[in-house]
Amino acid sequence: MGSRPWIADDELWALIEPLPPPWPERLPGPRPVSDRWQKAGGFDRLHQVLLADLNADGELDWSRTCVGGSRIRAKEQS
User: Fold this and answer.
1) Domain membership flag for residue 12
2) What highest taxon heads this organism's lineage (predicted)?
3) Is 1:7 a contact under the CB 8 Å cutoff?
């Protein structure tokens, strides 16, 4: 990546480009990208796309994977 790691190469950009939500025409001026992406699920989709690509290339070490319970709904007591 060199000295400018925020620059995506063409292959990476091909994965990312279709993910951002469309820009709303009625709102003047820029809004934070994180706000638009978060509301539209863009960060979740980006995470899924990049993980799938890395997995397909054999670049993920699944032996070091763990699952957190913070997003799992607890079973209700009856």
Assistant:
1) yes
2) Bacteria
3) yes
